[in-house]
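The freezer alarm interrupted the setup, so I double-checked each line after restarting. Inputs confirmed:
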Amino acid sequence: MLQVDDIHVYYGGIHALKGISLKVKERQIVTLIGANGAGKTTTLRSIVGLVTPKSGKITFNGKEIHRLKTHEIMRLGIGISPEGRRVFPNLTVLENLELGAYHRPPQEFKKDLEWVYSLFPRLAERQKQLAGTLSGGEQQMLALGRALMSRPQLVLLDEPSLGLAPLVVEEVFETIKAINEQGSTILLVEQNAMAALHVAHYGYVLETGRIVLHGTGEGLLKDERVRKAYLGE
Amino acid sequence: MTTKIFLQQLSNGISLGSLYGLVAIGYTMVYGILRLINFAHGDLLMVAAYTAIYGITLFSLPWYVSFPLAIIITGIIGILLDKCAYKPLRDAPRISLLISAIGASFLLENLALVIIGGVPKAFPRPEVFAKVIEIGGIRIQMLTIYTPIITLILLFGLLYIVFHTKVGKAMRAASVDFETTRLMGIDLDRIIAFTFLLGSSLAAAGGVMWAMKYPQVNPFMGVIPGLKAFIAAVLGGIGNIVGAVLGGFLLGLGEILLVAFMPEMAQYRDAFAFAILILVLLFRPTGIMGEPLVDKT
Ligand SMILES: Nc1ncnc2c1ncn2[C@@H]1O[C@H](COP(=O)(O)OP(=O)(O)OP(=O)(O)O)[C@@H](O)[C@H]1O
Ligand SMILES: [Mg+2]
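Predicted 3D structure, all chains:
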């Protein structure tokens, strides 16, 4: 479904991605783990066209997307919950969700909204509240819900568990699994390597702009190096 | 001063203020989305006024065709202004944008000077607006009555668009976060173009009414009302649409009443407006209705 082929990204003189290649197959959960500054967010930003790789190729459903504009890429069927949530604080919960569905046919809206509300009942209770006044966890749910409102084939999640209480983290991962079982393909960026590898079918380990390891979720969980570096053993 | 004269002045103040307000909306909308003071905005009054004149004199259109046409054309010129002067600078530092705005303003003024010339042109005043009526002993021109009414109608129309339509939602989203707006699959450039279209059309409506009020049109006619409207936008709280209109009303009323109560101060009218600007910036930079705006990345 998604294929990233040897992309290089520079920020001025900083060589942030030094040849990243990865594949996300339909109906999988694929996770990208790595330390701070490894290049996880940069990888997602390249996929959605917010940064342009200097070289390399990105294809989505067989179509080259790395030269398209961001809104064109998203309309192909990609949804994202960006790093730091980025809900629109001056808009209500409902308006945020409506924006998530911006390019969907209007007659689908009610159905999609009900689906998102069934995943996050909390959002239904607070639909008239300004998103800026939600708690951090609620904002995270809103960012996730907003990404799902476009009924994307591929969902990109950048650290959805950041800053959440342990119980809520568990909930978020349950939801990710549920969404996946309902047919969405997911590329999940996480600091919480343990939880991410548990839900993921496949994983990539990123270190200073390079992929140093990849394998099935289970395989990586057992890997000596992963356990040392990311699971703190 | 008699009550009669006072009421007369009051109506003048409201009418002048609503013109400031109409033009101020454009400043505030563009600021809200680009964090840019669009210094070329005032010149759109001049563009609209000339376009309306030529519609009538060159193409013999009736005013009720020529005026709306001038408003639409000016709206489109607003979009072109963004495309040529601001869009290439989207990722540039804010100060480059500001310099470009000042350049665009000079360009418009001097283009008009070269093409049309500096001799003021008389603006046609249709009978509907020029007619004078008497209410309770005070004589008022219909234009004075229509101006605030038209302003309020346009204001409510605009508020409807911004708060109750899909594109309005996208505008409000873009005013806080460009990147995330694009991540919603929204074509940001179209949203910005639409913002310029709305703001410039309102300025054009203001320009046509301004030209009827002061029917001498010249290439620099937009400068002073433009600056006054900018002050009104800051006074109301820049970024806030209702605030812009409120600021416009207050400034217009303030100016007229200053002159009415202290005729000897008449020549300080503009100084009074700029003093207000300085005071607001010193003591309440967010204006009357503004909330502190976050700096956008
Ligand atoms: N806009 C930018 N300008 C300059 N350097 C940047 C920029 N964005 C990221 N970088 C650098 O690129 C590298 C990768 O950053 P990135 O945000 O992709 O890391 P990350 O893996 O998502 O980290 P984290 O887990 O902390 O979110 C870092 O060294 C970072 O400092
Ligand atoms: Mg990151």
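Quick read of the result. Residues 2-85+154-230 of chain A form a domain with the Rossmann fold fold (CATH 3.40.50.300).
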